Structures are given as structure tokens and as C-alpha cells.
TrEMBL record:
NCBIfam families per UniProt: RND_mfp
Family assignment from sequence similarity: Belongs to the membrane fusion protein (MFP) (TC 8.A.1) family.
Domain CzcB-like C-terminal circularly permuted SH3-like: 380-440
Taxonomic lineage: Bacteria, Pseudomonadati, Pseudomonadota, Alphaproteobacteria, Hyphomicrobiales
The keyword NADP appears for this protein: no
Biased composition (Basic and acidic residues): 62-82
Record key words, sorted: Transport
Domain CusB-like beta-barrel: 298-372
Protein name: Cu(I)/Ag(I) efflux system membrane fusion protein
Any Pfam family: Beta-barrel_RND_2
Organism: Bradyrhizobium yuanmingense
Length: 471
């Protein structure tokens, strides 16, 4: 204890104060020396306050540490607080000093921020008046800046549109009677059955058909001379008007026998979509007994957004993917662009003709269409990542070399495949920044703001007054 009193007396005599504290993790007492601030003149204002134990902690105003000790004030004339002068190796003129953390704060003289960091000197020529931004090689490397020359290439704009499969209206046939008839017999054909052209479907008895057939046979077998040929042509036309199949008429002319019932057959290859015929029923004129559709060629009716209408045209190739067959696509071409815009969905109906030899595409099946609008003409194009789009204007950063980058406004065209057409503002071969351009843009905005602060700062003759105000 005597030794401890002696040490304390010596410390007080030399301007030091000793404090003891407990290390809970080691379980022993330890002595730590603290610097006691000298008496501060009343006319001075501290720049900031630092931790009394020497730890790298600072505060902009008075503060106590976790042990209740006051932070120590640091004054403008404190040697420990003075920033180091700039290196003499550079002969350039210092314009001003900017905040090291990027805050919009400048100073005409060297100073420290509240954390004790020196303000960064800005030299004459760092912010050129030609509108370029200059970065050091180290900052360019750390930021990952990449540039690519402007080149001519084909811009592929892919228009996507959903739709459904529909039957080709030109490939649908309906079987209906043109006179009162009775269905005598029906073949083993049901809805959904596939039929071939000429395949028997049913047997029909019609008194009107039988009468016309007997009249035609009487004409062609008559020995009467004069006008027989003309009269025979009229009787045959009557059978045609009653929709009697041509093969039935040819059989009558060959056998000279009028059939009691007529065998009706399928007019085309296809699928039976509708069967309304029932054995023994009476069919009135116009009643649809069968409806058959050829599905070897179908339509994809898709809805293209109004904004993409200018990119599509009749004859363009289209890849259609059915949701029922993932990983498989069907190739077709645009046949018709309907001349009407849906006012509710703001879309335009487009018809795509698709070959369907395997009959995999069925009516009302959902599909997704990708319209390839690639133009064979080569245009100036850049990567879409190179564009800085503010909504009202588009700009790029042109790499001028030696770490200089020039912001330049451009006019853009079509977009697709990761590239954008450039219609004005760039020339072929110029290098544009494609990576980390947002960081360069932020640096440009920061330098512009700092330059504005520097221009608004008071002249050097008022530097002392300005420094006093900052305090």
C-alpha cells in the first residue's frame, strides 16, 4: 500500500492520474494510466472528443465512457489532432478538402471529421471542366469496371404471347340433309372417332332423293328421240342439288338401278367432332347429323400486347410451346394480324398456322408463342447493362482512356437478346462501360456536389473566419 501511495503521488505531480480496474476474464487487478486533460481556455471550442483510455473512439460532443469518465476534448492547436500536411511530391494546387466518408462537406483548410479521419485533398485538375469523371487505376480495379466497344450486330427482339389452339375454319365439314330424310343405319362411328375421306357413315332414305333418282334413270334409259340429253342433264342436276354423293350417281349410271337408300360417307379425313344422327330418326332439311374437322393443320390464336404490335408482321416465324408437352416446340408462321385491339386487355389477336401431323395439338389447348422478330440488318448496339436510365433520359459512360469516363446521352431503339440498338449518341468502335457504371455515376454526382460546395465556399482571405464558424 505504501508503494501504491508513492506511485500515486508521483503521477499527480507529473500530471498523470492512475486508475485501477478489474479484468473479469483474468480475475486480477491491473493498473492503467489515463491522460488527464489540461485546463482548457474558455475561448476555445473543441473540434471533437476522444476516448480517455486511448481507444479509437470519438464523439462530436461531450460524452462519458462506460466507466463514467469524460471524453477528452481535442482542440484546433492540439498537435495530436493536426492532420498531416499533404505530400510534397505533388506540385499541384489544392482546391479544397472533402469529407473522407463522402458526405457533402468541404473545408478550405486541412481538418478532421468527428471520427478523427483526415479530410481528403482535392487537387486542381481532378475535376475537369470537360464533363469527364477521372478515377484512379486502383479504384477502377476495385470497382470491377469493364468496357466494351460499340459494334454492329443483329438485335433479336423476342415477343412472347399466350394463346389457345383452334380449328382451321376451312377444314371443318358438316353433313346435313337437304330434304326430309330418315336415318336407316349408322356405321360404328362416334364422337372423337378418326375417319377417312369416303368412309361410310350412315344410310339415308329420302322420298325426294328416290324420286329424283328414278326420274334420272328413266331419262337415261329412255329410247325417246329429241331433247333427251337436255332433260337428262336437268335430272342429274336435281340429284346434285339434293347433295347425293357423286359416287352414288356414278353407280346409278353404271347399273341403271335406283337405290332405295343412299350410303352417306365422310367428305374428308379428320375427327368426328359432333354426331347427332340416331338410327330411325327423321332428319329435317338443315339438321346437322355429323361435323368432321381436319386437324392436320390448326391455328394458334395468341394475344400480343399492344406495345409489341410494331415488332411483328405477317410471315414471321413463330415457335409455339404447348403446356401439355414441356420441352417441345411447334414451328409456324403468322398468317393474320386481326385489325382490332381489345379495349380491356390492350392486346391484338394474331393467327398462327401450325402443322399438326401427329394430332398432338387439340382445340382449346393452352400454348405460349415466341415470335422471332430478328432483323437481318446490322445496327449499332450495346449491352443493356451499359445504359443508365432515369426514366426521362438514357445515358452511357464512354471510356476515354487513362481512367477518364464521359457521361453521354443516347437515343435507343429496339431491345432484345441482352442488347439495345443505339440510334444516336455513339459511334462504332467507341468503348462504353458495361459493368460498375452505377458506381462511376455515383462518383460523378458526388464530385459535382462537392464542386458546388467548393464554389460556394468563402475566399481564402476569409478562411480564418470560415474556420471559426465551422468550429
Amino acid at each position: 500500500m505504501k508503494t501504491l501511495r508513492l506511485l500515486t503521488t508521483l503521477a499527480l505531480g507529473s500530471g498523470l492520474a492512475l486508475g485501477a480496474y478489474w479484468f473479469s476474464n483474468e480475475g486480477r487487478w491491473s493498473v492503467h494510466a489515463e491522460v488527464t486533460p489540461a485546463a482548457a481556455p474558455a475561448d476555445r471550442t473543441p473540434l471533437y472528443y476522444r476516448d480517455p483510455s486511448g481507444a479509437p473512439l470519438w464523439s462530436a460532443g461531450p460524452k462519458k465512457d462506460d466507466r463514467g469518465r469524460d471524453y477528452l476534448p481535442v482542440y484546433d492547436d492540439d498537435k495530436a489532432a493536426e492532420p498531416k500536411p499533404p505530400q510534397a511530391a505533388s506540385s499541384r494546387k489544392i482546391l479544397y478538402y472533402r469529407n473522407p466518408m463522402g458526405l457533402p462537406d468541404t473545408s478550405p483548410v486541412p481538418k478532421k471529421d468527428p471520427m478523427g479521419m483526415n479530410y481528403i485533398a482535392v487537387y486542381e485538375g481532378d475535376d475537369a471542366d470537360d464533363g469527364t469523371v477521372k478515377l484512379s487505376p486502383g479504384k477502377i480495379q476495385r470497382s470491377g469496371v469493364k468496357s466494351e466497344p460499340v459494334a454492329r450486330r443483329s438485335v433479336q427482339v423476342l415477343v412472347k404471347a399466350p394463346g389457345t389452339i383452334q380449328l382451321d375454319e376451312r377444314r371443318v365439314s358438316v353433313i346435313a340433309m337437304r330434304a326430309e330424310s330418315f336415318v336407316q343405319k349408322i356405321a360404328d362411328v362416334t364422337t372423337g372417332s378418326r375417319v377417312k375421306a369416303g368412309q361410310p357413315l350412315m344410310e339415308i332414305y329420302s322420298s325426294a332423293v328416290a324420286s329424283a333418282a328414278a326420274d334420272y334413270l328413266a331419262t337415261i334409259t329412255s329410247k325417246t328421240v329429241g331433247g333427251v340429253e337436255i332433260y337428262g342433264r336437268g335430272s342429274r342436276q336435281r340429284l346434285i342439288n339434293l347433295d347425293v354423293p357423286e359416287r352414288v350417281i356414278a353407280e346409278m349410271e353404271k347399273t341403271h338401278v335406283a337405290p332405295v337408300t343412299i350410303h352417306w360417307s365422310a367428305p374428308r379425313d379428320g375427327i368426328v367432332l359432333e354426331r347427332n344422327a340416331i338410327e330411325g330418326m327423321r332428319a329435317n332439311p338443315g339438321d346437322v347429323l355429323f361435323r368432321i374437322a381436319d386437324t392436320s393443320l390448326v391455328w394458334a390464336l395468341v394475344d400480343v400486347a399492344e406495345r409489341d404490335l410494331g415488332n411483328i408482321a405477317v410471315g414471321q416465324s413463330v415457335a409455339v410451346r404447348a403446356r401439355s408437352f414441356p420441352g417441345r416446340s411447334f414451328t409456324g408462321k403468322i398468317a393474320v394480324i386481326y385489325p382490332q385491339v381489345n379495349r380491356e386487355t390492350r392486346t391484338v389477336r394474331v393467327r398462327i398456322e401450325l402443322a399438326n401431323p401427329e394430332a398432338l395439338l387439340l382445340p382449346d389447348m393452352y400454348v405460349d408463342a415466341d415470335v422471332d422478330t430478328a432483323d437481318s440488318a446490322l445496327v449499332l448496339a450495346i449491352q443493356d447493362s451499359a445504359v443508365l436510365d432515369t426514366g426521362t433520359r438514357q445515358a452511357v459512360l464512354v471510356d476515354k482512356g487513362d481512367g477518364r469516363f464521359e457521361p453521354r446521352e443516347v437515343k435507343l431503339g429496339r431491345r432484345g437478346g441482352g442488347f439495345i440498338e443505339v440510334r444516336d449518341g455513339l459511334a462504332e468502335g467507341e468503348a462504353v462501360v458495361t459493368s460498375a457504371n452505377f458506381l462511376i455515376d455515383a462518383e460523378s454526382n458526388l464530385k459535382a456536389a462537392l464542386k458546388g460546395f467548393a464554389e460556394a465556399a468563402p475566399p481564402a482571405s476569409d478562411a480564418g473566419h470560415a474556420t471559426g464558424e465551422h468550429k
